[in-house]
Fold DNA-3-methyladenine glycosylase.
Amino acid sequence: MKIVRCGWSEKDDLYKKYHDDEWGKPVYDDETIFEFLVLESFQAGLSWYTILKKRENFKKAFEDFNYKKIANYSEDKVEELMNNAGIIRNRLKILATINNAQRFQEVQKEFGNFSKYIWNFVDGKPIINHPKTLQEVPATTVISDDLSKDLKKRRFKFLGSTVIYAHMQATGMVNDHLVYCHCK
């Protein structure tokens, strides 16, 4: 029997695995939430597929997305990252990642953990949508607008509403699997 997936995930095995194992599944640990914040911020203006192909390179370059280490990166480390052909070499995004690691820890101090803060925007439980077509899946919502605005107020960078909605999908805050998908 053929497994039926959301149409966007049929490109290759990398996409299928991501779709089946991660996308739309709730994530509550701060480490994985931060990883997706980094990946989604680098994705801005690019395809998610490009980021997925480079995910392991990002993981290595950013020391397993260790936000405590990233928050203290020096200019030398920024230059090292700028010379790393395995990642997206965008200085503003690299600097934003360092900034966001610092802001991430500030939110942790305020709320106990980042997960508690971010999941509060959806009352602690996933929003389950039932789109019939990819065209019914929005790029932003009122919630992603509000969360993005709050993050901006907290001085996070490269986390506009579209990036945040993609993050919400990636971390299962919202489930946009199509009604015919085996993961719905």
Remarks:
- Residues 83 and 162 are 28 Å apart (CA to CA).
